[in-house]
Amino acid sequence: MQYVKFGNTGMDVSRICLGCMNFGDPDPNDVFSMAKDYDESKIIFERAIELGINFFDTANVYQSGSSEDYLGRLVRDFGINRDSIVVATKVGFDMRPEMPNGGGLSRKNILAEIDHSLERLQMDYVDVYQIHRLDPFTPVEEVMETMNDVVKSGKARYIGATTLFAWQLERMQKLAEQHGWTRFASMQFQYNLLYREEERELIPLCRDRKMAIVPWSPLAGGKCAQPLSESVSDDEEDINVLTMLLTKPAIDEVDKPVVEAIEEAANNRGCSMAQEALAWMFNKKYVTAPIIGAASVEHLEEAVSALDIVLDDDEIQLLESAYVPHVKKT
Known about the structure:
330 residues; alpha/beta; 8-stranded parallel β-sheet
């Protein structure tokens, strides 16, 4: 396993982050209704530890809180030294949609939800506490001051943000600087060969500010990992997920050439499409650690093996040349 610093901090993280969104009690009302139960999650988690992965990402909202519960139980059941791993979680989406103050980034909700997350995780602190997108109804001053207070209270070591526009991120970072508050150490956003819009503004801003870059959906919901002939799905869950990830719920004419390029490059190299697409991301030195939402041990091992693939300029040109702009997702 390779390890890097987490942006402009002294904390070391594995170059692969295990996403725990699909860990938790299966619930047909959640986006990922086919979540892995505890025994299935345990197998994937154990292999991640064996492979040297020390970075785990979840959120309070994943599987209605049971993702955090599973992660905490796994850490305890395997006797993991808490100081040896990096745990990130998020706040913002509705946890109690039927009630007032059931979500968002108000001071009330952030301070309540960090305690709820720590209780589910059975931990004294999280390493990275992230806002799960921006709350349009809460002043950013309130958000940044409260996140600073979470750090100062010892309940989080660092803070991060997810899926912002570049101007929003810069405004919030400048606000923190002006008040002497904790700044975001990391940024999560969708980034893959089918969706590269953040290369225009957000990635250059993160690089300039020396922030950790932690992409989610590095395989575009699996669309970068299989030929077009195998990628069309009528499964309602797949369609719901892809609608969230991409501009359309299915691969269209804009994306077909990119998928075909991944298939060609993978065939030329003699590796899988998933390995090729992940190798492209690992070759972007500004990427800290993509979030791999492994559904099996095999998926996890495939991702780790991609760390050793070095792409040449012609291969990168083949993978990138067919891309055309998309509507930016928020």
